[in-house]
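DM from R.C. (forwarded with permission)

"hey, sorry to bug you on a friday — could you get me a structure for this? deadline for the figure draft is monday and I only need the backbone to look sensible"
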Amino acid sequence: MSSIKIISLGSGAPDNITLRAFTALKESDIIFAPSGEAVRVLERLKPLEDLLLKVEQFDIPMKKDPSLATGVYDKVTQRLYDLYKEEQQVSLVTIGDAGIYSSAFKIVAELTKRGAKVEVIPGVPSFVAGMAQAMVPLVEQGQNLTLLSQINTPSDVLTPLANGSVVAIMKLSLYQESIKELLRQGNYPFTYMEWLGDEKQFLTSDLESFLSRTCPYFSIIVIKPQSV
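My reply, with the result:
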């Protein structure tokens, strides 16, 4: 029996999808995709023009009540499992990498519990792809990397920076005002990126350019420690 494939689509640029992910998409009979950016990536993926004919979209409620999203994940899990038992080649796609702040592993855990064979295909995270495009090293020798998806107080950012760690902040739209204030007050090198791989893509390391922008959902910033 084949495996259920969890396919990471990477940063959002179709040409950043790995060969392994591309092959898995091509071989899939049915592809489950959350509505929005994941579907837009698949739309731009050539030469698989008929790829969208295989796609079943589902909506994830972007609400604070986690039970709303849980109900959607339960339905997707059941559908994946039923098709797997019918020996169909099924897959689930996710933006970025499935192992980095993705809900995909909730589905993986449930499928594994039921005895299904699951294969997770990694992808290129946005903070890696964006820094490469900006031609700035993500971390250099002797530095650590702190990855944040939630900020409770400024010290969540300032403490790792003071300890010499590079800080990458995801879900920046939720914390943009506090991060803008932090950068106003401190002389921290940074790279800001939004809508990577899209025609709306924007990258900057200029403070005034960053301060003038309203950060969308698909935005991330990498802040480096102050130079000695």
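R.C.: lifesaver. The mean pLDDT is 91.
me: no worries. The longest helix spans residues 66-85.
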